[in-house]
């Protein structure tokens, strides 16, 4: 298990966080899953299969976090899979994991019926299957929490089969082929992070701004009090999920108090970087505007000059061009000196 998976799993193994994740995604923010009604389940699934000449084979899969939710009228298995990169066979992988869970449930019913033999022994069709007509399975819902930028893999078997393309054959085939679907949720693209009521709200919001450093640090400072209340496990998960911030990772290696990451001190430094970068961008834009304004007073600014000035990010070079524009008495003079500067 990688660092990313471990940090996220340690966070989601907390019942209150897991409940919040499922409420925010599956129940659209409604508090349907209660932490006190959750039961941790093993994440390893496996069954024996028949190989050649009756020798046994084994099919095994390991998941990330799995719990049983009791809603009073029904019980549901809720599972979460953390995925840092696109897995192009994820649909088949999740389908197999859920099938193994259903197989485990059937085997548990068979065992119970064999031991209890109540209200009577299994007979007829029930004896053949090992379960009674009134026996019921617990449905499984798996949420794939994707931590990358954009999921471009399939989310259904029809996509993997290529049956989403319209054709005469596909029109008939799709009536008989089961279109198994999976639930892939992009952590960096949560449209309504306010649906979540735990630290997940702040983590998903920061992920949303992860590609814009200034907005990220503005958000951090606006929610400083809430973020300070996060403990070591929550902070570590946030840092790992914000994995693109290499400087942040380096800063977090500094010795801090206890075992908790020095997350917000590091973000403070990065925020200052963001403000400095913002000031620099402002200066660059100001020089660009001044150059074009001075040249516009001389004559119509050639298109190639406009493009070069607007695309230039070297503040020193822009300063030279600004002085050149101020000293030139005509557009021809500026262009001649400008071309000499480029040589």
Element layout with pairings:
Blueprint: H1 3-12, H2 15-25, E1 38-40, E2 44-50, E3 56-62, E4 65-70, E5 75-83, H3 90-116, H4 124-129, E6 140-146, H5 157-161, H6 168-173, E7 183-186, H7 199-208, H8 213-222, H9 224-228, H10 232-241, H11 246-252, H12 263-298, H13 303-311, H14 315-327, H15 331-342
Parallel strand pairs: 5-6, 6-7
Antiparallel strand pairs: 1-4, 2-3, 4-5
Task: Tell me about this structure.
By secondary structure, the protein is of the alpha/beta class. The chain folds into two domains: 3-189, no CATH class; 278-342, no CATH class. Helix content is 52%, strand content 13%. The chain contains 15 helices and seven strands. The protein has helices spanning 3-12, 15-25, 90-116, 124-129, 157-161, 168-173, 199-208, 213-222, 224-228, 232-241, 246-252, 263-298, 303-311, 315-327, 331-342, and strands spanning 38-40, 44-50, 56-62, 65-70, 75-83, 140-146, 183-186. A five-stranded mixed beta sheet has the order 1-4-5-6-7, with helices on both faces. Mean pLDDT is 83; it is low at 251-261.
How would you describe the shape? Answer: elongated
| Percentage of residues assigned to helices | 40-55%
Uncertain ranges: 251-261
Largest sheet: 5 strands, mixed
The overall pLDDT, averaged over residues, is: 83
The total count of helices amounts to 15
Q: Give the distance, in angstroms, between the N- and C-terminal Cα atoms.
A: 55 Å
Main sheet: strand order: 1-4-5-6-7
Rg from C-alpha positions? 30 Å
Number of strands: 7
Order of helices and strands: HHEEEEEHHEHHEHHHHHHHHH
Strand composition percent: 5-15%
Structural class: alpha/beta
Structurally, how many domains make up the residues? 2
